[in-house]
Amino acid sequence: MTRIGVDIDSTLHHYWDQLERIALARFGVRLPYAEQTDWMVGELARDQLIQAVRETHSDENIVTAIPYPDAVETIRAWHEAGHWIHITSHRYEAARPATEAWLERVGVPYDDLHCSFDKVPRCVELEVEILIDDSPVNIRRAIEMGITPATIIHPWNAEVVAEHEVVAGTDWRALAAAVDPLLR
């Protein structure tokens, strides 16, 4: 059995569409996905970014997210094979009920759910062996803590994937093919 941590936003679903839609509606700022080559969203002031992220984590936005193709099926197969699944997100604890409802609605099985800003320390505490996350910060922290990082490649994490040993794929099918040998 392998203990697998799985992020939600930009890992289980294409979060950037929500963030861009909200940034445009609230602040008149476009955030083209392909141009987001840095983890910091410089087009928005810090307080604007915080406000936009909080809105993406509203109950309505959480429960209407559409999972990436093959994400749910991959996690379900891992879980059915006996692997322990820890869903983890940099969401406020208040977002937990909607997150639980979404995970149930889309059919993602999990053994533990953690909504907080201490993602990597929690993974260490739970002895997670593989962390699937899009954040370059979390990928680097996972490496530092001896956790194997894995990710869907995005413009903002392509550099860290190229610089470090990161298990990666351009989509969930490719990611699953890259992760599966580690689960044997």
Describe this structure in words.
The protein is of the alpha/beta class and 184 residues long. 43% of the residues lie in helices and 14% in strands. The chain has nine helices and six strands. The protein has helices spanning 15-27, 46-56, 59-63, 71-80, 96-106, 119-125, 136-144, 158-163, 172-179; strands at 3-6, 84-89, 112-115, 130-132, 148-152, 167-169. It has a six-stranded parallel beta sheet with strand order 3-2-1-4-5-6, sandwiched between helices. Helix 5 (96-106) links the parallel strand 2 and strand 3 (112-115). Helix 1 (15-27) packs across helix 2. It starts with a strand and ends in a 5-residue tail after the last helix.
Short description:
The chain has 184 residues and is α/β, with parallel strands linked by helices. The radius of gyration is 16 Å and the shape is globular. It is 43% helix and 14% strand.
SSE topology:
Layout: E1 3-6, H1 15-27, H2 46-56, H3 59-63, H4 71-80, E2 84-89, H5 96-106, E3 112-115, H6 119-125, E4 130-132, H7 136-144, E5 148-152, H8 158-163, E6 167-169, H9 172-179
Parallel strand pairs: 1-2, 1-4, 2-3, 4-5, 5-6
Helix pairs in contact: 1-2
